[in-house]
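# nightly structure sweep
# worker-07 picked up a monomer target from the shared queue
# config: single-sequence mode, recycle default, output format = structure tokens
# input follows
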Amino acid sequence: MQFATLSDKEIKQRYDIAKKYFAELGVDTDAALKTLAATPISLHCWQGDDVHGFEVHDTAVTGGGIMSTGNYPGCATNADQLRSDAEVALALIPGKKRFNLHAIYAETNGKPVERDEITPEHFKNWMKWAKKQGLALDFNPTFFAHPLANSGYTLSSSDKKIREFWIRHGKQCREIAAAMGKAQGTPCIVNHWIPDGAKDQPIDRLTPRKHLKDAYDEIFSVKYSPKYIRDGVESKLFGIGAEDYTVGSHEFYMTYVASRPEKDVMLTFDMGHFHPTETIHDKIASIAPFQKELLLHVSRGIRWDSDHVVNFNDDLRNLFLQLVRCNFLGKTYIALDFFDGSIDRIGAWVVGTRAAQKGLLYALLEPTQILRMFEKDGDNAMKLALLEELKGAPWEAVYDEFCRINKTTVGNAWINDLMDYDRKVARKR
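# output follows
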């Protein structure tokens, strides 16, 4: 099956109609396209290989509170394959992108290297590749899938030696990130997530949190220029093997970030990490008066934090609407975080990133001033009516124009390229 594409003339005609539609509502589509073009989205390397990484181990490791499900053929098995797959995805995504690495994606020439010994040298190939692709890199310490995570505790462990190991790992990761930031001329965004917690009702809930505070204080004690690195800490409601007690809870990290006099650490909000009755979009306005920056992990949870591929749903639209309405978009770093091994992994990257871009564009095209006027005047029926009509507005014609401007396949036609690569390359591994 082959999907047809529109001609440049057809795309432009559709865009002109959409431009007129939104202009009547006081929305400048050209300005929206400029903002969309200036807003990078960070693609995550772990979607390409199901969070396996390239570490060399003597034995298999387990510990860690994270897993990908599915066995779709063609999973990348080495760094070269992963980079090749990423290049295919990047070519099918318009606009500005970044690329997000985990520490376990170090390349060590087949030699075991402990995580507290990794250096920028182990990521030189990634930095060369990113420069060639015109990408900036982001980074994550890997506090899971390691024998010293088997207890369920890393930075908050009661064992001082285990804590010190993971503190050293965190420090090394920040050194690597700073080297990336210096080389690429834009800050490397570093996200810190730990799986620490207990499966069932611990008596002492305080001591691990004291350990965690002290551990992060030590990790962040090494100062780097904000030109090179930005740090975020990621909370979670619960996790695999930590169903009752999560050391790095929302309250812990919000208090930790707020209590730092340097204001040098930001919150990370993951769409799947809150109670099922909570939504991230409401939290944007809650933190905006107090926080200067925010890191977002955009994902889709079907059963809580199941990390399905992002699609253009209500949660996604509401998230970006709040970023725009609260004037917080320019203070937010947007990263993807899903890992679905049950579908074509390159397709997952493209679907998820395009969906996030569409969510942002939808928000940028909202006639917010008119809606605020209705709300201020108590005309809530009119507000609701306009919101409903906007769901059918020709916003996708604006996205098609964005793809055309960026010389990226428009509409369904990109699926042709995906199927071709899947058949000729991925399935032959």
